[in-house]
UniProtKB/TrEMBL annotation:
Gene behind the chain: pnuC
Listed GO MF terms: nicotinamide riboside transmembrane transporter activity
Taxonomic lineage of the native organism: Bacteria, Pseudomonadati, Pseudomonadota, Gammaproteobacteria, Thiotrichales
Subcellular location: Cell membrane
Main localization (coarse): membrane
Purpose of the protein: Required for nicotinamide riboside transport across the inner membrane.
Keyword annotations: Cell membrane, Membrane, Transmembrane, Transmembrane helix, Transport
Annotated family: Belongs to the nicotinamide ribonucleoside (NR) uptake permease (TC 4.B.1) family.
Top-level taxonomic group: Bacteria
One GO term describing the cellular component: plasma membrane
TM region(s), chain numbering: 12-34, 41-58, 64-83, 104-122, 128-147
Record has Ribonucleoprotein as a keyword: no
Mode of membrane association: Multi-pass membrane protein
NCBIfam families registered for this protein in UniProt: NMN_trans_PnuC (TIGR01528)
Protein name per Swiss-Prot or TrEMBL: Nicotinamide riboside transporter PnuC
């Protein structure tokens, strides 16, 4: 495909973007910004954004992404309750780091499930089944890490978001590509922010 033809396709995709997709993408960016600051209000933004994305992905034959966002709706409620308790000091939930053994189990489990779901999707009329399954499986697993404030969740989001960008580029979700590109930057910023907060927690305990 020539460069001019690719540019024409990109412009046509941008012109046909849904207003709902743009709105959901903006809410998603807000979610990451608030999450990096450990603000409980990140979760209501995620709740609304994921409702919109559930409908959009289902209509565009990305069933795993639709199910993923349906799951996110529940996780937004769970995350808000968990972080709200912490902010009101009725329970303590601190940022913490996982040992390498946990990461090996996490990656192996996610890879295995991605292959299973990818194979299942390949037998049905879905787009890019293995990539769709990979993004879905690791996003589901990593959202739990984020809600539980595991530091390395931000590093996993780097890989997941990069894979999601490829998937959405192939399927024409242009506003979502912009959102996930911003996610890449914000996830790295979130990692350094949480690492700094974790160091401050250690200093407080040893003081």
């Amino acid at each position: 495909m020539s460069e001019s033809a690719w540019w024409d396709i990109t412009l046509a995709g941008l012109a046909s973007m849904s207003g709902w997709e743009v709105f959901a993408a903006l809410l998603g960016i807000g979610y990451i910004l608030f999450a990096a600051r450990e603000s409980q209000w990140c979760w209501p933004l995620a709740f609304i954004s994921t409702i919109i994305y559930t409908v959009l992905f289902w209509e565009n034959q990305l069933p795993m992404q639709a199910l993923l966002n349906l799951y996110y709706i529940g996780m937004a409620v769970y995350g808000f309750i968990l972080w709200h308790r912490h902010e009101n000091q009725t329970a303590e939930l601190n940022i913490h780091s996982w040992p390498w053994q946990y990461h090996l189990i996490f990656i192996a489990t996610g890879g295995f499930l991605s292959l299973i779901f990818g194979y299942y999707l390949s037998t049905h009329a879905t787009q890019y089944p293995y990539l769709d399954a990979f993004v879905m499986v690791f996003s589901v697993m990593n959202t739990v890490l984020m809600a539980r404030k595991v530091l390395q969740n931000w590093l996993y989001w780097q890989v997941i978001n990069s894979s999601a960008i490829v998937l959405y580029a192939l399927t024409g979700f242009y506003a979502t590509i912009v959102m996930f590109s911003i996610y890449l930057f914000l996830a790295m910023a979130g990692y350094f922010k949480w690492r700094k907060l974790l160091a401050a927690q250690h200093q407080t305990r040893t003081a």
